[in-house]
Amino acid sequence: MPNPSTDLDASDWKSQVYHTLKTLDIKHVAYVPDAGHSTAIKKFEADGNVTSVVLTTEEEGIPYLAGAWLGGDRGVLLMQSSGVGNCINMLSLQSNARFPLLMLITMRGEWAEFNQWQNPMGQAAEAALNLMGVLTWRAETPDQIDDLIQGAATMAFDGDQACAVLLSQKLIGKKTWSK
Amino acid sequence: MIRSEIIREIAPILAEHLVVCNIGLPSQELHLIDDQPSNFYMLGTMGLSSSIGLGLALAQDKKVISIDGDGSVLTNFGTLPTIANNVADNYILLIIDNGSYGSTGDQPTYAGQRTSLTDVARACGCENVVECQAEETPAVLQQALDSNKMTVIVCKCESGNIKVPVITMDPVVIRDRFMKVVAS
Predict the structure, then answer these.
(1) Chain A neighbors of B57, CB-CB under 8 A
(2) What's the whole-model pTM score?
(3) Can you tell me the distance from the alpha carbon of B158 to that of B14, in angstroms, rounded to the nearest whole number?
(4) Closest partner residue to A67 among B44, B45, B56, by Cβ?
(5) Which domains does chain A possess?
């Protein structure tokens, strides 16, 4: 399969997330709706080979994906950095039973943030994940997406680790109230 | 009847299926009464039993019973609309509702006061919701399994605990032996 990770422009990386996850045999996508993940979410919702589940809160995604893994399936959790705070205690489940966990997190509150209410959790998200034993990598440019997700997935599904790829606000681009 | 007596009554049914069990005393009671490799004991992360069960049910075809408590459902209320809108007909959510937080000393929950989990589950869109008394649980559970429809059972019982040992099995061992049963 060709590796489409090079020569991506700013609009391609959102599709790249979907295509990379498809190469990893992802069968479940658990998510809280988010603009940064919207392209991947639309593609997964249209994909009959993947079960897409909207969560009422991000913390539901940790046990949902643990259950899917018990059933033999790989999944991914898509959320925004504000959702990281909702997951913290639930990461004990992964930590204790060594469930693989792959999370893709769109960042807020770190650059060109118009809404200061996003700042506290956005700026604490990576450290909070690390405190709970989650390995993190940051994607700053579109060409990093495929490589970082592939590497995180290897450590999650082959090494029973909790892993998160942080999609930085510079990658996502400036957001305004109107969007 | 108290929760442990219900677990004892339904143990022969549970042994035939995949079981995800709620935090603390319920898991310890099930482990004491009838430990099976097909039991996944959740010893922390209160509220997540129903969500684990849903993911498991949607990922494979064997029947799954999540045993939950009223206090735990109250702490993860969002699970009910998620379950209602992602139907898995091999999934049973059995809420043993004793109206109290058993593991911390039987302090009363709202479910034992003005909040009906049966009504909440229905309002969230769950189509098959059955409320029963403790003594009826084995028959109601078997009927739900036989119906091949996703069912939420709210089993009303008395508050109370028995003395139980802790589960010394490593959670990784609990996970691995459970996954072997799923794959078998």
Answers:
(1) 67, 71
(2) 0.95
(3) 21
(4) B56
(5) 13-172 (3.40.50.970)
